[in-house]
Write a structure and sequence with these properties.
Blueprint (H helix, E strand, L loop, with lengths): L1 H9 L3 H25 L8 E3 L1 H13 L6 E6 L7 E3 L1 H19 L7 E15 L2 E13 L27 H11 L3 E7 L2 E9 L3
Parallel strand pairs: 2-4
Antiparallel strand pairs: 1-3, 4-5, 5-7, 6-7
This protein binds adenosine-5'-diphosphate (ADP) and magnesium ion.
Amino acid sequence: MVLAQLLESELPSVELKEFTQIIIEQADRLSALVNRLLGPQKIGQRKSDNVHFVLEKVRKLVCLDLPNFINIKVDYDPSIPDFEMQSDQLQQAFLNIVQNAVQALIPAAKADSMITLRTRTAHQVTINGQQQRLAIEIKIIDNGPGIPNHLKHTLFYPMVTGKSDGTGLGLSIAQELIKQHHGRIECERISERTEFSIYLPMTY
Ligand SMILES: Nc1ncnc2c1ncn2[C@@H]1O[C@H](COP(=O)(O)OP(=O)(O)O)[C@@H](O)[C@H]1O
Ligand SMILES: [Mg+2]
């Protein structure tokens, strides 16, 4: 809750500081809740697996129930080697992000609606303060309306949702699963596209 902490230090009055203190406490409490919910899976065994195999499972799953105005394009770098992962957990993380992209594209029902699954190797990436010589970059890109402005700074916190029927858990779970893989997730808006980027170290 870095932003709330920043806000707190900038605020003039004691009452306003109390409000931000409440925000900080509640966000910490909810993050701890998600960590507890995901806790036992941490014990799971990592196995050498292929990231494209995982992404293809997600693609096929989503395609089972995809409106026909949405296309999913793949742009994989086939040279990415297998690496140690808990593939079920990564699958869940990717699925949560792709499902959000689908849900963001549905209301406008544009004929050119597109989701792109893209992989690349990335050199010298900093993940959680550590410089990684070699990492894998996975991008899940959509050409939908983008993250609502009021959610931008809290997107990855639990129970932050822009949907009337949302749980707000998808991205916070995805982030926690990626953290368990010593990775990093971020979201950017780049020329009419919403890009979720995941960086996973090849070894750690
Ligand atoms: N690709 C996307 N495009 C637009 N908004 C998004 C996208 N991904 C996530 N969001 C926004 O982030 C919110 C939080 O997502 P998530 O944590 O998965 O919870 P939920 O899907 O249950 O609302 C969504 O409700 C939505 O408003
Ligand atoms: Mg979701």
